[in-house]
Amino acid sequence: MFVSRSISAAPTLQRVTYQTYRIDTELNCLTGNVSLTNKLYLACLHALTSSGYGTDPLTGKSGTEEALGLLRSASCRSTIKFSVRDAELLRLIASLCPSHSLHRHKNMQVVHWLNLPVRSHNHRLYLAAKEIKRHVTNAKLFHDGWETKGLKKFPSHDDHLYGRSLLRAHHLLPSETSEQFSRGDGDATYHSRDLILSDSAEHRAFVAATAIFQWSVDPAGITMKDLVGLAESWKSPLTSSAVLSFTYQRSWLNPHFPAIWIKAYNALRETKKVQDRFKLLFSLSSMAYSSQDLSKFVPTLLAFAVHPEFRAENLPAHSEYDLSDGYRPTQPTVVQMVLACAREFYLSPESSMPARPGESSRALGNRRRKAYKARLDEEANYVADQVVEKWSPDIPAISIDFDAYDCTRLDSKIQDLSQSCSRNIQLRKHLTRVQGILRDLDPGSPAAALGRYSSYSPDHRRQYNPVTNSHI
């Protein structure tokens, strides 16, 4: 390859300036003298002769890489002289970067390209030249003879447009110049959709859907270690009156578990993989997507469907459980029931107590009400002691003044409380057995790796088997 160059001598020049370089085959580079002019001229020469089709046979690098190496070297900062020629060379090197300016309507930008190969238009050359200019400007304080007026012609760029251009051309830079560069705070941060965190809604739904599709549960993923405590924490009766369907519905984004637990447990135990898998895939995945807390229910609910051990563990045949009543009647609860069923004061024996000699009507009224309250407290505590000490699922025998209380209502309340406590005991035993089954589940064969959620996989075609005539 031959390069033709012509030299025209200007009549105003007294002499022609030139630079001398020696080919160093040991270091594989061109070597000159120690002057800044010599270094800058060589850097400019390398930058202008850079080719995108290969590397220089002497240096083994592209011209741009060699130029940047020179401009960043200590030899360009340890100079003792700075001339007008140096300022002109710095300007020429910095001008190899295309300039960007806003259109007059400021709705687009105008790029001014040089008539040079694209590999010569490198933003790093501008940055390196600008760094030398900054060093010279700072060091001029100690060198009165430096001629820095030519630096006023140093090209300037719009910081915003230059930063955008540098970011977009970054992948085109040579490998040795593509290191991370400082971008400041001007550029926005965009999070890729494929970079999904493990606690994100999409990833939770993906994990739930994968487990349901594989119809397998990892026992290590079951985090519910206290079903009894969980049911008690709901502070609401467990009922079976709600309508339950595992089809995709809005209610699965925020299910009310006290209302659906009984039906969900019974329904999940009867599910079949072929018929119900995709129903659960939509409903339970929606629940996992809704919140981190709800996603913890998915492994437990899926275990009810996957493992046949739960089919033999039936719920007691009751339609409601109110765990707020506890597992046996308590003294304060029964006392409040007795007081609520007491006759009104004006119907009580105390309301007709005779007055004492010289006793005023006000004092008589206070004495009657005090006696009424004392009797209620005494009898309420007495009845509560009988119920608590002799408690059984059946109504305990109670001795009480039937004229002073609504005994029918009181008997009904105590009976309801006793039966509720009895149902709660049965539920607690059932949940304890269910917890034991969950704890003793056999891990079986290891489930397939869940991987990471991704909106696109380069190997997605491999997931589908080709259909041939033999399949039809």
Tell me the layout of helices and strands.
Elements (H helix, E strand, L loop, with lengths): L21 E3 L4 E3 L4 H13 L14 H9 L12 H11 L4 E4 L6 E4 L10 H17 L19 H10 L32 H14 L12 H7 L4 E2 L17 H13 L3 H18 L1 H4 L1 H10 L13 E2 L9 H10 L20 H29 L17 H33 L33
Antiparallel strand pairs: 1-2, 3-4, 5-6
Helix pairs in contact: 1-2, 1-3, 2-4, 3-4, 6-9, 8-11, 9-11, 12-13
Helix content: 40-55%
Biggest sheet statistics: 2 strands, antiparallel
Uncertain ranges:
176-186, 445-450, 455-472
Gap between N and C termini:
64 Å
- What value does the average pLDDT take? 79
Strand content: under 5%
Which series of helices and strands comes N to C? Answer: EEHHHEEHHHHEHHHHEHHH
Rough shape?
Answer: elongated
Structural class, by secondary structure, is: mainly alpha
What is the tally of beta strands?
6
Tally the structural domains: 2
Radius of gyration: 44 Å
- Widest sheet: strand order? 1-2
Number of helices: 14
Give a quick set of tags describing it.
about 475 residues; two-stranded antiparallel ribbon; 14 helices; about 5% strand; disordered C terminus
How would you portray this structure in words?
The protein folds into two domains: 22-177, no CATH class; 198-329 and 391-453, no CATH class. Residues 176-186, 445-450 and 455-472 have low confidence and may be disordered. 42% of the residues lie in helices and 4% in strands. The strands form three sheets. The protein has a two-stranded antiparallel ribbon. A two-stranded antiparallel sheet has the order 3-4. The chain is mainly alpha-helical.
